[in-house]
Design goal:
heterodimer, A: 117 residues, mainly beta, four-stranded antiparallel sheet, globular, B: 114 residues, six-stranded mixed sheet
């Protein structure tokens, strides 16, 4: 299995530009999570989906952030307009709950390092 | 809300030393507890987990016991290796880890010197 795939791995953009981060979960997994990692705040959950439906988006910092999951094999996290304080590493993770929710494990992608100048 | 507190480090040890990384949590009910490891430039990998009080998770020589009375889940290893150098995250979940988000500690940077 290829694991969780994220693209791009690195993104540098100017303030005010739109940024789109992409994630392909492990095939067959029914949960998808987006996290953000910064030095100041550590790892924070932004939003997660179950069967392509957003379940909890309370961690999305502002209306500038939006996430979609149009099908089971693809999700995007969009920031528009971007700001320097959005600079962080963004991780996508997926899990399969079918064996029982108390045994499922989240598998993380390698992350996208975003720098907004 | 839920929270996890862990020593941030960096923690620097010599090879073959004993390792303890402290982790305490605040949560209502009976969360599941986890340790994740992050190697440079990579995503997080699950190291071990425990889903109920007094459970011991173990993997690759690392161990942690779920102590509800002290709300703790300290990570230990008897003899560390240079290859254990990484950032270690303590985390909790209400569902067992797969069906809701994880709440993470700030991470502990571990450096093992030969």
């Amino acid at each position: 299995d290829a694991g969780v795939i994220q693209s791009p791995r690195h993104e540098v953009t100017e303030m005010g530009q739109e940024v789109t981060l992409r994630c392909k979960p492990i095939s067959g997994h029914d949960y998808l999570f987006w996290y953000r990692q910064t030095m100041m705040r550590g790892l924070e959950l932004l939003i997660y989906f179950n069967n392509n439906v957003p379940i909890d988006d309370s961690g999305m910092p502002e209306d500038r952030f939006s996430a979609k999951m149009p099908n089971a094999s693809f999700s995007t996290l969009k920031i528009q307009p971007s700001e320097p304080r959005d600079s962080a590493v963004y991780f996508c993770a997926s899990s399969l709950s079918g064996r029982g929710v108390f045994s499922a494990e989240q598998y993380f992608g390698p992350g996208t390092r975003l720098t907004v100048t | 809300g839920d929270s996890v507190t862990q020593m941030e480090g960096p923690v620097t040890l010599s090879e073959e030393a004993f390792l303890t990384i402290n982790c305490t949590y605040t949560a209502t009910g009976y969360p599941s507890l986890f340790w994740y490891v992050q190697y440079p430039g990579e995503g997080l990998q699950l190291l071990l987990k425990a889903t109920k009080a007094d459970d011991k998770g173990s993997n690759k020589g690392f161990e942690a016991t779920y102590r509800k009375e002290t709300t703790s889940f300290h990570l230990e290893k008897g003899s560390v290796q240079v290859s254990d150098s990484a950032v270690y995250f303590c985390a909790l979940s209400r569902s067992g880890g797969g069906a809701d988000g994880l709440t993470f500690g700030k991470g502990t940077h571990l450096i093992i010197q030969p």
